[in-house]
Amino acid sequence: MTRDTYPPTRQPHAGLHPAESMTRVELERLQLERLQWTVRHAYERVPFYTRRFDEAGIAPDDIRELADIARLPFTTKEDLRANYPFGLCAVPRGDLRRIHASSGTTGQVTVVGYTQRDLDTWADLVARSLFASGVRPGWTVHNAYGYGLFTGGLGAHAGIERLGCTVVPMSGGNTAKQVQLIRDFEPDAIMCTPSYLLTIADAFAAAGLDPRATSLKVAVCGAEPWTDAMRKELEERLDLRAVDIYGLSEIMGPGVANECVETQDGPHVWEDHFLPEIVDEALTQVADGERGELVFTTLTREAFPMIRYRTRDLTSLHPGSARPAHRRIAKILGRNDDMIVLRGVNVFPTQIEEIALGIPELTSHFVLELSRSGALDELLVKIEAGPGTDAAAAALAADVFRASIAERVGARVGVELVAGGSLPRSEGKLKRLYDLR
Ligand code: DLL
Predict the structure, then answer these.
(1) Which residue stretches, if any, does this entry annotate as coiled coil (predicted)?
(2) Ligand 1 pocket, 266 CB below 6 A?
(3) N or C, which end of the chain has less CB nearby within 10 Å?
(4) CA of 311 to the centre of ligand 1 (A)
(5) Is any atom of ligand 1 closer than 6 Å to the C-beta of 249?
């Protein structure tokens, strides 16, 4: 079974897809058609959804308007694990053209599969995301997202080609070679995690090279939470525009949402393919502008349709700006499973990052160590001071850092200055939190 509604044209090499300039009313009409298709497709093809919908007493014909989505049951990461590997697949195995997997924190991977049409849509949406980022056909794009089961490398790769650019399929790691090839091939844009871009900038500096003197004009960064303070740091250190790309394997991979370079005000969700909602802790939908957990329903996925998938990412929805019909998500605060609850206060690594980058003597190289003393949890922030900062200035900065965290986050934490270069450097997704309890 294929979708009955499909984009009228492929994403053009230059310029906008018709769906990007629709009115909100036109977009919602398309969303409703596609939601009805998806719900029926999932219900008829995936026993898990048949059972879930039957239990909830809802049938595909009950979806008459977009608001009816609130009657559908949620899908969670645990559901994906329980149906590992192909229980949620809605097409015959032979129709899958590719499989990706995301490594869960508990070790068990979750699997996603794509039909040819799913892969085409994905390439189109990454091309759309790159165009929104300011990348143009004919450019060379250095792709330092990891290749393999992770969706970052191959997902970005197909979109770079689809836009009509030259891809350098570098993958992650091997930082000295990244530096060398950026110098030799003179790419116009780079795709990698924000923390890895920082590692690359450090490697330029360590080699006595000016990171501001590269050919790079745009960095398309995502796959992990990062703050506007980090954006500023990257833009200043590398003299480029850093744009936010968001996505997750369960929904597609990179390119579910992307920021526009002209506004840099949070990723636009490509709502012709994904229907976003924000829910509170009671799993009730909240209004646009309010923060909660981001939930996605895929609207065109053939192989692995996802109904109300709970991402665990905390953010809020806002009206579209540079693409008026497509709502934006605010920068992700963090995942609710990355949240540290310290004596009743919620702490996110992004809050610490923002504060650290506001103190000139400190760097964004820090880790969080959670330990237990008696009945109480304690958080220690280990951080590197900037190169050339003398001991007295660094100690003073550490005091300011501790006090700012107490004031702005409301949490009492320990701060320990560690030697420059002693903390692990990112080669992809950065691990900030070490739970020693
Ligand atoms: O990280 C897909 C991706 C690759 C996105 C390359 C962007 C660029 P997963 O490995 O399944 O997929 O991890 C998805 O990463 O739920 C968020 O918690 C986080 N994440 C992804 N993009 C962003 C972003 C890829 N721009 C999980 N800002 C998501 C904040 C992000 N967090």
Answers:
(1) none
(2) no
(3) C
(4) 10
(5) yes
Encoding tokens for residue 132? 């929104």
Give the mutation target among 114, 246, 258, 348 for probing the ligand 1 site: most ligand atoms within 8 A of CB: 246
Q: How many CB atoms lie within 10 A of CB 396?
A: 13
Tell me the CA–centroid distance for residue 61 and ligand 1, in Å.
Answer: 34
Residue located via tokens 């699997």: 111
Residue 118 CA to residue 100 CA, distance in Å, equals 13
366 SS3 class = strand
For 374-426, write each residue's pLDDT tens digit.
889 999 999 999 999 999 999 999 999 999 999 999 999 999 999 999 999 99
Question: How far apart (Å, rounded) are the C-alpha atoms in residues 192 and 170?
Answer: 10
Bridge-partner residues for 230, per DSSP?
A: none
Q: Which value, to the nearest 10 degrees, does the dihedral of the CA atoms of residues 62, 65, 70, 73 take?
A: 40
What is the β-pairing status of strands 328-329 and 334-335? unpaired
Tell me which residue has its CA closest to atom 6 in ligand 1: 152
The DSSP secondary structure of 284-328, one letter per residue, reads -B--TT--EEEEEEESS-SSS--SSEEEEEEE-EE--SSSTTS-E
Which residue in the block uniquely carries the two structure tokens 């899908």?
75
Say if pTM beats, i.e. exceeds, 0.85. yes
Domains of the chain and CATH, by start: 11-337 (3.40.50.12780), 340-435 (3.30.300.30)
Does the C-beta of 151 come closer than 6 Å to ligand 1? yes
Tokens of 360: 């000139």
CB 103 within 8 A of CB 76: no
| CA distances from residue 108 to 77, 80, 150 in whole angstroms, order as listed | 11, 10, 14
- Any ligand 1 atom below 6 A from CB of 225: yes
Here the tokens at position 230 are: 């980090």
Instruction: Report how far ligand 1's centroid is from the alpha carbon of 104 (Å).
Output: 13
Residue type, 399: D
pLDDT tens for residues 212-253?
999 999 999 999 999 999 999 999 999 999 999 999 999 999
Please give the distance, rounded to the nearest whole angstrom, from the Cα atom of residue 175 to the centre of ligand 1. Answer: 21
**Burial of 331: CB neighbours in 10 Å, binned 0-12, 13-18, 19+:** buried
